[in-house]
Design goal:
Elements: H1 3-15, H2 44-66, E1 71-76, H3 78-82, E2 88-91, H4 99-107, E3 117-121, H5 123-127, H6 131-139, E4 142-144, H7 149-164, E5 168-171, H8 190-197, E6 202-215, E7 221-229, H9 241-264
Parallel strand pairs: 1-7, 2-5, 2-6, 3-4, 3-5
Antiparallel strand pairs: 6-7
Helix pairs in contact: 8-9
Length: 272
């Protein structure tokens, strides 16, 4: 799709409050079966391809940074990430194929040497995405969701194992990627349910954007990112898991809304 078509579709979906629906033409979702995924990297082949994929990803994104197709202007509040020593769920707004690398680049010097940033991704991105990004989706420490119930049980066990050993897992609670969309969108509950069930905090991240001088396709400006790490949200031990998940979800959205209005100096409003 052309960028102008994507922008128009985003405006339409915003008016209709379809915030969690993808606006781009993603590949058809093929169900992910439990024997087709090694979430914890227990096989040699998984670890081998993960090493290759991670190196390839760094090479690709660093090249994009050198070419100024990806610009990280500033990182704020990294102390809010560093204060969390346990496993945690990271949440971030989702607007680009670059945003997960922006988060990784911001935290890479602040995580133990053998730790990785794990990323929850949609099923179709793992099973049926073509080309370089398909390879990265399958092997860069990704945790694909699945429409298969047995695979999802395996997913949930893997998430619990990773969090228990202190890993950080990035989840996009807005669900869909909306290209260069600056507003925070209403959040889905999954990230917060996982945090509550595993008794770990939410580290809230939000990326704000501003135009650079460089133009990309159709005359749209390359965006410069400012990455914000906001105070972590901890489970309240006096609440039930369901209550905790709901409260953390609400606090996450409010923290993003407050930051958005502070940085852009406008109230958060959605189109009519």
């Amino acid at each position: 799709m052309k960028r102008s078509e994507i922008v128009k579709k985003i405006e339409e979906y915003e008016r209709n409050r379809m915030f969690d629906i993808d606006v781009e033409d993603d590949p058809e979702t093929i169900p992910l079966l439990p024997d087709k995924i090694d979430y914890l990297g227990e096989k040699f082949s998984t670890r081998f391809f993960t090493r290759i994929a991670n190196r390839t990803a760094v090479w690709y994104y660093e090249r994009e940074i050198r070419k100024q197709n990806m610009v990280i202007k500033e990182i704020n509040g990294i102390e809010n990430f560093c204060v969390v020593k346990s496993g945690a769920i990271l949440t971030c707004n989702h607007f680009s194929v670059y945003d997960n690398y922006a988060i990784y680049r911001a935290i890479r010097d602040h995580i133990p040497k053998k730790s990785r940033l794990y990323k929850v991704i949609r099923e179709g991105n793992y099973t049926n995405f073509p080309g370089l990004f398909g390879f990265l989706f399958r092997h860069c420490n990704t945790l694909p969701l699945s429409s298969n119930s047995q695979t999802m049980k395996k997913f949930l066990r893997a998430v619990s194992t990773l969090l228990a050993r202190g890993e950080k897992i990035l989840i996009y609670p807005e669900q869909a990627m909306w290209w260069n969309y600056k507003k925070p969108r209403p959040l889905q509950s999954g990230a917060f349910t996982l945090a509550s069930r595993n008794n770990v905090p939410i580290i809230t991240c939000f990326i704000t954007m501003e135009d650079t001088e460089k133009e990309q396709e159709e005359g749209y400006k390359v965006q410069a990112y400012t990455i914000w790490f906001l105070p972590p949200i901890y489970p309240d031990q006096s609440l039930s898991k369901k209550e905790n998940a709901k409260l953390m979800q609400e606090k996450n959205y409010e923290s993003w809304k407050t930051l958005y209005e502070k940085v852009y100096k406008i109230p958060l409003e959605y189109g009519e």
